[in-house]
């Protein structure tokens, strides 16, 4: 199970309606369907991932998120989720608007580009960060819009988005440091947002 | 010597005819007092009769969806690529029922059949059927086979319309509805293509107001042109370009030559039209295209597709193809959006394919894989 899924589970209400943007292989939706009896859909664009969703019995809709969510009605889902995909969006701020329109609440997780390892990469090597979590070279990567936790929070402030909760999730033993100085030591953050 | 078929072929199949004597009330207000449907089945019906799949055919389709009628057949059934042991519609798991729709010309009661009231072929007087009439006649067929509930009703194009109508007319009798390259209603452009095809038939002097059989003739040219028009719209610009380009079949553009120049695409289309017109019935073609035009899923639900789908109790799988301009991906997206709005379980794949509307009949990895996995997930116990 991906390390952020455990925390996410606790944030979703029983039997709620969930829309998962960039749902990948459908593992999270399947988990939520089994543990919380949620109903809903995943949106995905990669054929192989779509096929995996279908095999899991997860509702998956072939849809490019850069096209927006115009086909979904206002407040039609309890929670709109997006895990580790914000940085791949062409217009992350517009996607955020759309998520908040369609969902009563949104949950977003993304990797922190302000993490000390990323900073060191740039500061000392003079190269764009490449890590286990983000293994792509700058010229060939789906991740086109990186941000730090602080960047994201500034955007939320500018858009008057309520940050209901922020949880820093670190894969290994760095949880304590992550809580102490999130933007420096946090690897991934889970944000719960509302309008 | 016995010919061996590929291991993933259903092999030799024999169609059979089912006779119905209970009158069928039609949407147009008329009644068919009795009728016959010609049917093929593949695979084995399980003890619970819970593994049956209904295949609904498209405009020019028939009951022969898979396998071969004789060892000498050059071509298998029209959806053989997707029906067979281990194929997407797996005959090891499912019992598959495929019929020629009422009004057809491959053995089921249609315009070529004898009207019991007159003793002559129905011809143009055969009732104008709508998609729901087919669905009701298919329900009678299910009754006769002892099938109370389909594991899935599957159809492409006009067949997809039947599958959707099934989900609304008999919600408790369908567990899964598979809608491929279809639409909840045709666009004006689509109706325009159909009307042009119909006019090609009707304006053929051999048509005789649809009663050509009484004159021992048929509107061969009109029907061929209708098919040519249809065929163009089933292919994409790209695939036509790739297949034929501007290649010449005969003649040349050399200076000083006055002979007729014929492009490959012309000869191909004429061949398609000619061979179709020999095997198909003109009145059936008119009837089928009208059924397509008339279909409007949500008409009786206040034009609210989500309200219509709220009646359905089944799960849905929808697929469309990127270069299909006759049933474009937008039409499938509308279906999916309405299903989401109705809070139904649905999965949707938008398949990259260069082959236009015909893609739903052709091999394609993503399509085949998604379709197979969806059907593999259906519980048949």
Automatic annotation (TrEMBL), chain A:
InterPro entries hit by this protein: Methionine_synth_MetW, Methyltransf_Superfamily, SAM-dependent_MTases_sf
CDD domains listed in its UniProt record: AdoMet_MTases
Pfam families hit by this protein: MetW
Cited PANTHER family: BLR1400 PROTEIN, METHYLTRANSFERASE
Protein name: Methionine biosynthesis protein MetW
Organism: Gilvimarinus gilvus
Taxonomic path: Bacteria, Pseudomonadati, Pseudomonadota, Gammaproteobacteria, Cellvibrionales
Record gene name: metW
TrEMBL record, chain B:
Keyword Acyltransferase: yes
Reaction catalysed by this enzyme: L-homoserine + succinyl-CoA = O-succinyl-L-homoserine + CoA
Entry annotated with the keyword Transcription: no
Active site: 157, 324, 357
Matching InterPro entries: AB_hydrolase_1, AB_hydrolase_fold, HAT_MetX-like
Keyword annotations from UniProtKB, A to Z: Acyltransferase, Amino-acid biosynthesis, Cytoplasm, Methionine biosynthesis, Transferase
Domain (AB hydrolase-1) ranges: 51-361
Main location: cytoplasm
Compartments where located: Cytoplasm
Residue stretches spanning the membrane: none
Designated name of the protein: Homoserine O-succinyltransferase
Upper lineage: Bacteria, Pseudomonadati, Pseudomonadota, Gammaproteobacteria, Cellvibrionales
